[in-house]
């Protein structure tokens, strides 16, 4: 558990780990140069299973996470963020999954999203549990939620650990490298409550390039362009830049139309169907494709993007019921967040 200025939340996060039904573990905490009350809170923890280390300054989350793994003594590592809550059976259920499948190298779980003061109404897209669904989700972002991840030390070290050049998404990069070489999975169980904290976009060309490299490698690994036809190879080649554009990166000199998203989704779904026969994976991908299309249509409308009308139309024609539920939940979330903020100000 890396910690940086998480005084309002870190004690609850620690207690959620200490109350696990599986009790044979160590909790390695790296205080990454916190300047708030976090160090004092950590000093008060008296459980002998907890070991606390401190960096003299904030070296970045990836560096703190690498140190936490180095300082740990187990062959199996569970990641935990300092503002989230592990449900009581999290470690027990994940440990049992590793015991049942010796080749497993990385395992995530589902989460329940919440904000301080209350649960979110929004239903986020679940993380895939089929091998093919996980491959599909890696084309867009990490198929594993960081605060749910459990992985082997061997796979972590073979993959080179967290990339300390990345301000964010070092987990996406690490898990992508593990996914390319090892067996990975997600449990269908909700085992972590994940705190929702809105973050500003990172407008940094070096970071963009590092993320682009991850997406490019995932696309090549998942879609196998060498045996694809010319049109699909072209789409795979365009996808890293297109994906960065969807993430909000500035793409000067490139003419990319957000309204082309359905073309990419359809082509990639067909490619995965061609490569692997997996009806359960097909169903997961179909659901996730609806979410990807609806989410990007929503963002285009919200920011008055040039492709907003076309994307909104395409998403509604493709999945009218899903779109209706999605929009209602997004609007309900907005109302709930405003009420929470008003309640916080009144207190």
As a percent range, the share of strand residues is 5-15%
Strand and helix order: EHEHEHEEHEEHEHHEHHHHHH
What is the helical fraction, as a range of percent?
Answer: 40-55%
Q: Regarding quaternary structure, how should these chains be classified? A: single chain
How much is the average pLDDT?
A: 87
Q: What value does the Rg take, in angstroms?
A: 21 Å
Please tell me what the overall shape is: globular
Low-pLDDT parts are none
| Distance between the first and last residues' Cα | 31 Å
**Structural class per helix/strand content?**
alpha/beta
Number of DSSP strand runs: 9
Number of helices: 13
Main sheet attributes: strand count, strand direction, barrel closure: 6 strands, mixed
Quick description:
The protein is of the alpha/beta class. Helices cover 50% and strands 14% of the residues.
Draw up the topology in text.
Blueprint: E1 2-3, H1 10-18, E2 27-31, H2 38-43, E3 50-54, H3 61-71, E4 76-78, E5 85-86, H4 90-100, E6 104-115, E7 118-119, H5 131-137, E8 150-152, H6 153-158, H7 170-181, E9 183-195, H8 205-223, H9 230-246, H10 261-275, H11 279-302, H12 308-318, H13 320-346
Parallel strand pairs: 1-2, 2-3, 6-9
Antiparallel strand pairs: 4-8, 5-9, 6-7, 6-8
């Amino acid at each position: 558990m890396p910690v940086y200025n998480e005084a309002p939340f870190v004690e609850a996060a620690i207690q959620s780990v200490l109350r696990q039904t599986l009790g044979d573990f160590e909790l390695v905490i790296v205080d990454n140069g916190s300047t708030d009350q976090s160090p004092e809170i950590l000093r008060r923890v008296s459980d002998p299973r907890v070991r606390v280390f401190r960096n003299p300054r904030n070296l970045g989350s990836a560096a703190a996470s690498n140190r936490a793994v180095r300082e740990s003594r187990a062959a199996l590592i569970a990641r935990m963020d300092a503002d989230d809550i592990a449900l009581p059976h999290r470690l027990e259920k994940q440990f049992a999954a590793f015991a049942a499948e010796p080749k497993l190298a990385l395992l995530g779980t589902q989460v329940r999203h919440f904000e301080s003061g209350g649960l979110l109404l929004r239903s986020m897209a679940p993380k895939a549990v089929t091998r093919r669904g996980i491959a599909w989700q890696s084309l867009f972002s990490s198929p594993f939620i960081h605060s749910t991840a459990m992985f082997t030390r061997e796979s972590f070290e073979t993959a080179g650990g967290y990339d300390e050049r990345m301000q964010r998404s070092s987990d996406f990069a690490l898990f992508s490298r593990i996914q390319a070489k090892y067996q990975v999975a997600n449990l269908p169980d909700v085992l972590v409550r994940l705190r929702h904290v809105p973050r500003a976009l990172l407008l940094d060309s070096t970071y963009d390039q590092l993320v682009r490299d991850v997406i490019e490698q995932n696309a090549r690994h998942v879609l196998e362009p060498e045996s694809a036809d010319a049109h699909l190879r072209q789409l795979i080649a365009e996808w890293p830049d297109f994906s960065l554009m969807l993430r909000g990166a500035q793409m000067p000199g490139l003419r990319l139309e957000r309204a082309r998203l359905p073309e990419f989704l359809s082509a990639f779904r067909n490619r995965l169907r061609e490569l692997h026969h997996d009806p359960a994976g097909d169903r997961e991908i179909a659901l996730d494709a609806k979410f990807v299309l609806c989410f990007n249509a929503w963002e285009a409308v919200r920011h008055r993007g040039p492709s907003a009308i076309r994307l909104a139309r395409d998403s509604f024609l493709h999945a009218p019921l899903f779109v209706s539920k999605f929009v209602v939940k997004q609007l309900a979330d907005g109302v709930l967040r405003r009420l929470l903020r008003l309640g916080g100000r009144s207190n």
